[in-house]
Write a structure and sequence with these properties.
By secondary structure, the chain is mostly helical. It has helices at residues 3-33, 36-64.
């Protein structure tokens, strides 16, 4: 395994772990604050939009071959 392969795999696993942890934090925030169904949806949409933007940036870079 080369250094480049290891870095690529580590980055993918690390970012995936951080995203999963962020979803856990959003879940706990919605549950502990007693936000209800609509409030929980608002939390997931607003905070989850940052994750979607980060993923979209990567996809766009691959599509444009930057």
């Amino acid at each position: 395994m080369t250094v480049e392969q290891f870095e690529s795999i580590s980055l993918t696993v690390g970012i995936g772990g951080l995203v999963a942890y962020m979803f856990y934090i959003m879940y706990r925030l919605a549950r502990d604050s007693g936000a209800g169904r609509i409030g929980g949806l608002a939390i997931f949409l607003s905070l989850g939009l940052g994750i979607v933007g980060f993923a979209a940036k990567s996809v766009i870079q691959v599509m444009l071959e930057v």
